[in-house]
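Data deposition worksheet. Section B asks for the primary sequence of the deposited chain exactly as it was used as input, without tags or linkers unless they were present during the calculation. Section C holds the resulting structure in token form. Section D is free text for depositor observations; keep each observation to a single sentence. Incomplete worksheets are returned to the depositor.
Section A, Depositor: J.P.
Section B:
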Amino acid sequence: MNLRWDDLKLFLAVHEYGSLSGAARELKLGQPTLSRRIAELEEMVGEALFVRQSQGASLTAAGQKLLPAAQSMAEWANEAELNMKKQTHLPEGKVRIAAPPGIAYDVVVPLAAKIRKQHPQIQIEVLSGVEILNLGRGEADLSLRTQKPSDDDLVCMDEVSSAMRVYVSQAYAAKLPPHLHIADLDWVCWTASYSGMRTEQELSALIPNFKPAFTSDDFIVQMAACKAGLGAMILPQATHHYAGLGELNALQELDIDLGQNAVGTLYMVCHKRHRHLPKVQLVMDFISKEFDILRQAK
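Section C:
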């Protein structure tokens, strides 16, 4: 049996994107062509590789058996291509970074400015949201996330931790009593649809019958509300300092102990098949330098 890399690449695409239609769009192939090529591969293997369903395609036992070898071939092919281009080509192209809204606002935007200044051939696309995107299916190239990945195909390339602290506007702080308790504060939070967010859960545990004063499903709106004096927010200490919010209406840190567990960790995550791509490596190097700045800001 002589399996060709071109066929295995199609097999991997269907697996990673979860459907023939998704893989066809990404590969810019017609779906009938892709279906025919997969059928030819299955005929060569002698067994079905996918279970076709209305919502996508999943691997059969034979497909699961073929998967590790196909992934290894992808890594070898990628390494060979990198070695050929290493000396003659500058990294270029679009790099998509998925990040929580606060991290996208405070860290990724200034990071993108630095990258563009030094490497104008790199385009940065920021996918800001609280949902965790699927790197295996190509929804992003890199992910900055608050949870360590459990998928064996995902690699944590770097991480940084920071104390979580309480911030309010200077005008709001001026009205607070001298002996302050966490329950005395008005709180700016996510809407009920995001009640699973860690900060909301911790505030609910610390404050009986917790009811926020202001909620929004948009982090920028929350920050504006906090600066306007509507209430307090819990933010990572390092990223707040790094953001350079030193203007008149900037936020002020309050001396409130949230407990020893009030520490947030940010992970830089990449799919193992993408971590050696020059453009992704370049952006990861910049992110690691930003993490060094955050570590120094503690």
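Section D:
The chain has three domains: 5-85, 93-160+264-296, 162-262.
Confidence is low (pLDDT under 50) at residues 244-249.
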